[in-house]
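Supplementary Note 2. Why include the ligand at all?

Several targets in our set were suspected to adopt different conformations when bound, so apo predictions alone were not considered sufficient. For every target with a known small-molecule partner we therefore ran a joint prediction. The input for S-adenosylmethionine is given below.
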Amino acid sequence: MSTKHWRERLNRWTRMAVIRATGRRDLFWRIWGYNFADEAYQRRIFPQHEWLRNHLAALNPASVAEVGCGFGRNLGLIRDWLGDDCLVVGFDFSLPMLARARDYVTSEAGCLCAADAIQIPMRAASADVVLSHGLLMHLPDAAAGVAELLRVARRSVLIVEQWDDAGERAINDYTWVHDYEGITGSVADSSEAVLVDSRVILNTEQLLCLRIDRHSSHSTS
Ligand SMILES: C[S@@+](CC[C@H](N)C(=O)[O-])C[C@H]1O[C@@H](n2cnc3c(N)ncnc32)[C@H](O)[C@@H]1O
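The joint prediction is reproduced in token form.
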């Protein structure tokens, strides 16, 4: 067995022990942040990225914020798709993740910021598009997460989440299953926004991709 293999096993054991003993999700992600980017699965590009690319092309935003950006996989893709004219901002509460994300963000066209997804340090309606990918399943209160994404979005929110139609069952020890369509529908209603696309995508797992537009700024792809 290689050193990398043992380092990954130790990292997994430590973060699971921390979450079971303390429930501290920030610590869990701080520990995972040291080797998350080295896992081949986390680096892969999946069909949901094609969905994201199509919506971003249709929206042609001047700024995109990703909340829960991890090591910056999506930030790098967005920079490739939209070029340096689009300002890209990444938020995450794991400092080791953000350290790795520096590889994907140029200081001329982007920045990274340590923050909790429930309290994003941005003014209301300040990024054209706000994205979260694999974040809400890690929040106990997904409705509060969606409301915060919508608060800082000027035009649209794009959400990609792992989805389990069994409803209640958590996918593993450290995630929740939420009724994303129900939650985004009701948050959208109360914020005068509209759910303009909802798509299930199958790859190694089942994913739900949602686009919510503020007011009437919709033009579906
Ligand atoms: C499954 S990873 C997804 C990373 C990235 N979006 C991607 O697709 O590669 C989830 C990320 O959300 C971050 N995260 C989880 N809960 C958070 C919270 N409450 N506030 C900010 N970031 C959070 C974790 O640190 C981790 O980087």
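The chain has a mean pLDDT of 90. The domain at 44-214 is CATH 3.40.50.150 (Rossmann fold). Comparable summaries for the other entries are listed in the accompanying table.
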